[in-house]
Amino acid sequence: MRSQFLIIVMLAVGVLCEKDYECKYGVNNDRFKCNEVGLYKKIQCRMNSCFCVSPLQGTIAFDTRTNSNTTIPKCGKCLDDVEKMFEKGVPENNTFVPTCDIVLGDYEPLQCDMTKDRCYCVNPKTGVAIKGTEKKLQFDSTMKCNGIEYFVKDGGLSIFRASAESRRSRFTRCKGDVDMGTTCGGNASAIQYFFDVDTQKCYPFKYNGCGGNKNRFNTRSDCTRRCMLMDHAPCALHSSPARRNDGFLFKCEDKANGPMSPENKPKISRKPINEPKLPKMNADGTCPAGYICQGGIFNSMCCDAKLDEYVNSQYSPKCPKGQSLYTSGDFNSAVLGKSCSHQFCPYNYKCYTNDLFAYCCK
């Protein structure tokens, strides 16, 4: 009985402690799991659902989302085939990668192979080319497949490039983990701020006076000004907004912030072009189902609704009965840190944690 218990525990630990590999090639910020060569694992789970993603770009197939994080979704054959392409490691640069749709992960009816300078129609379920449809690749042109007229544009085609890893770089000063430094004579400790790359926010910590690293700022505003990207996504925890299969964002209008400016409205081609198949959409018809429109600095974007609701609940922590929350600023908002070990609470306050943040009560 004891040995059986140990086996169960070891299996559980093995799952929980699965090694994290760096995602090198896509631009998805959702901290999805990647394999040893830096490509996204085809099946991802987050909160109360699982879904399929493109191994190369990390693009979600929205209609594969399940209602439980223990239910494995069924991915389209295109995603299966792309996954097999990378089973034996990273291919050569400029290898053609088929385009999968963002609905179920099936093949897009139009495939364009830049390595052969050809476009052709395929069966969406099998990826088999349809005879007599092949044409020379020509950007800014149209081509009809399955009754849908597609616009062939540069930037929407997939080939493998190892150099894509460089797109994930950040400002050097803002990349380091929090370092509280060491105590030393003559230098008093003080509350300073560090930038957290995962959430794209600045948090307080106690700096002991000497040493440490460069990811350290005197004020939260200075930290934000130096490290926050102006065009960062407004989605919770810096998660990635919903993208179409060509990598472009779903355009939406955040009603809370007024109408979209003319320069940011979706650009419509002069030629009438039918919309390729889309996933199930929300009531407004602007975002995939389960996503809401959030206003950013320059554009509004479609963000995961459940993740947004969950994170918002964590921004309003509750103190034990009879204790008051440490707040700051004109809006009387809670002072939040990343960890109680960062010792940012004032004297006489005790540090508590919820799922995401640390906070102070007395």
UniProtKB/TrEMBL annotation:
* Keywords, ordered alphabetically: Disulfide bond, Signal
Q: Name one Pfam family in it.
A: Kunitz_BPTI
- Source superkingdom: Eukaryota
- Looking at the record, the residues that make up the BPTI/Kunitz inhibitor domain are 174-227
Gene Ontology MF: a single term: serine-type endopeptidase inhibitor activity
Q: Which residues form the signal peptide?
A: 1-17
Name of this protein: BPTI/Kunitz inhibitor domain-containing protein
- List the source organism: Caenorhabditis bovis
